[in-house]
């Protein structure tokens, strides 16, 4: 507990520095707009076997740092993620698959493919991790007066889950579920959904689930040859060569992003904002700096705002080389995740300005 508090304090101090380095005018303008809802749940952090490589503590540390930074000024509101309803899960997942996971009847091979041991805690984690993205989607799609344009989920981005199987630390595909829920519940206002997946690994689950769905467009920009599973065909796949640096990466992204929004004209965008393209990531194979990832994030938010699209941001991957919560590596990953939501809050004012101009 003491190490957790110490790390949270480090994050808070860095967050304060982050505010000073940001455009203060953007933050002051936010007082004119509703706070950005950010969904979280302490159920995300579950016990893992000794030596497990997944950085489970990052969810709480990111939330604590952002909460200390943003909540006092009403820049964001922090809301607990509900458990996903079965009726929502089965909009894109096979009902038998959902039942088998929830009731603990996965085979050992299936659990190994997912990467987590099965437990009641892991079920709650998977349900709340999906429920948070669904709740964020409702927050932006339910167009009551004063509703936000952007929302975030401090977890999710589980893009390796397929309709009938999980893999790569992903059981249920939160983005796919939320997209299907939006198309089901907001038919009059949401007919075109865009998934912008910038995790270092391809969004293979989303690609497979929406392969024949004309209402959902999947865009995945990822590192070439950096995943153990067979890739699927997204609507647009962009492979970045291992070792790519900021200039190359951002040039490629910029060349696609504007045309992508022009082509799809999404009413709702999901941003899978994995930070594993970072040069310090344990599994990333790219050489993107913290500054480069910040520019990446702003590009996505800027295009969504410019095209008057609602947006939900999810966390995605980020893997420190050192799992010690007080290490520089762990701190760096948490900071990169926090930057995703800092930019979401800062760019929310632009989304409101664009809304008023339409």
TrEMBL record:
<dbReference type="GO" id="GO:0016787">
    <property type="term" value="F:hydrolase activity"/>
</dbReference>
<dbReference type="GO" id="GO:0040029">
    <property type="term" value="P:epigenetic regulation of gene expression"/>
</dbReference>
<dbReference type="GO" id="GO:0004407">
    <property type="term" value="F:histone deacetylase activity"/>
</dbReference>
<feature type="domain" description="Histone deacetylase">
    <location>
        <begin position="57"/>
        <end position="327"/>
    </location>
</feature>
<dbReference type="Pfam" id="PF00850">
    <property type="entry name" value="Hist_deacetyl"/>
</dbReference>
<dbReference type="InterPro" id="IPR037138">
    <property type="entry name" value="His_deacetylse_dom_sf"/>
</dbReference>
<dbReference type="InterPro" id="IPR023801">
    <property type="entry name" value="His_deacetylse_dom"/>
</dbReference>
<dbReference type="InterPro" id="IPR044150">
    <property type="entry name" value="HDAC_classIV"/>
</dbReference>
<protein>
    <recommendedName>
        <fullName>Histone deacetylase domain-containing protein</fullName>
    </recommendedName>
</protein>
<keyword id="KW-0378">Hydrolase</keyword>
<dbReference type="InterPro" id="IPR023696">
    <property type="entry name" value="Ureohydrolase_dom_sf"/>
</dbReference>
<dbReference type="InterPro" id="IPR000286">
    <property type="entry name" value="HDACs"/>
</dbReference>
